[in-house]
Amino acid sequence: MSYRVVFTDHPFGDLDVERETLADLDVTLVDGEQTDEPLESLVAGADALLVTFAEIDAAVIDELGECRVVARGGIGLDNVDVEAATERGIPVTNVPDYCVPEVAAHTLALLLALERNVVSFDDGVRRGEWDAAAGDDLHRLSTRTLGLVAFGTIGQAVAERAEAFDIPVVAFDPNVDGDEMREQGITPVDSFGELLTEADAVSLHAPLTDDTRHLVDEAALEQMDEDAYLINTARGGLVDEDALTAALDDGDIAGAALDVREREPPGPDDSLRKRDDVVLTPHAAYRSRESVAELRRRNVENVRRAFSGEPLENVANPDVL
């Protein structure tokens, strides 16, 4: 039997990994990066979808016909209408743990860049300055509390790495038992608001849902200390960027480090790019040669499994199986 697989979008230079994984099947692999065809017509009648950032909404899903799987290459599923896929009986999969070491390391890198004034020092030296006193407001890391919003796999990995720097950690996650946190040396707090008031750096690791969109808004930022930092390596929509800009302007917090943005890439008029108190990276926390290779292999493997009748891994809507 022959199959048509559409890879809607991807940042890869080729699809060699995907073709190799599917080589034992009669598969036509369509590269969405090589066409300007509208998404809905591109996916029409596809037997499987590979997806990175494309918006797979109900209108797109309605065009899929007898699709065996929508395989999202990444952790979050906020760009896939899982409910619509479930109504059509289409399983949706993801790769929820492929880049845990990378995101945890990137989070610590951003934290250290803020706490140790790395970017500003670098800018000053490149301008011909040599002023260590520009860091007189720095603090010993053991006196600064890191607050983790969500304590899933990545949050736990961040906590483990923070321990190596002797950084105290508190965490808020209503889905994780406080005793489990204490066993890992983490102090649980009872509410998001309590975390905001206790933490000197707030690091976001929650999924983006209707309930968490703009979780960090004006009210949340007002609860943070004026020398506190905000770090986001999760999803851009967790932060109200207008409120963040206002908080920075007013000195309500000391700075921010963002790997993810509400709009990606940000436009040329993006005000956060022009600030000395903000560190920005281009949604790169997940990247390493190893993590990307693992992501591609595991994502397309679910397509192969769907065609071969094998159990799928990491199904977001198992009721359809």
Automatic annotation (TrEMBL):
Coiled coil: none annotated. It comes from the Archaea. Belongs to the D-isomer specific 2-hydroxyacid dehydrogenase family. CDD domains: CtBP_dh. Residues 17-317 form the D-isomer specific 2-hydroxyacid dehydrogenase catalytic domain. Residues 259-278 have a biased composition (Basic and acidic residues). Residues 108-285 form the D-isomer specific 2-hydroxyacid dehydrogenase NAD-binding domain. PANTHER family: D-ISOMER SPECIFIC 2-HYDROXYACID DEHYDROGENASE FAMILY PROTEIN (AFU_ORTHOLOGUE AFUA_6G10090). The keyword NAD applies. The keyword Lyase does not apply. Residues 257-278 are annotated as: Disordered. Keywords: NAD, Oxidoreductase. This is D-3-phosphoglycerate dehydrogenase. One of its GO terms (molecular function) is oxidoreductase activity, acting on the CH-OH group of donors, NAD or NADP as acceptor.
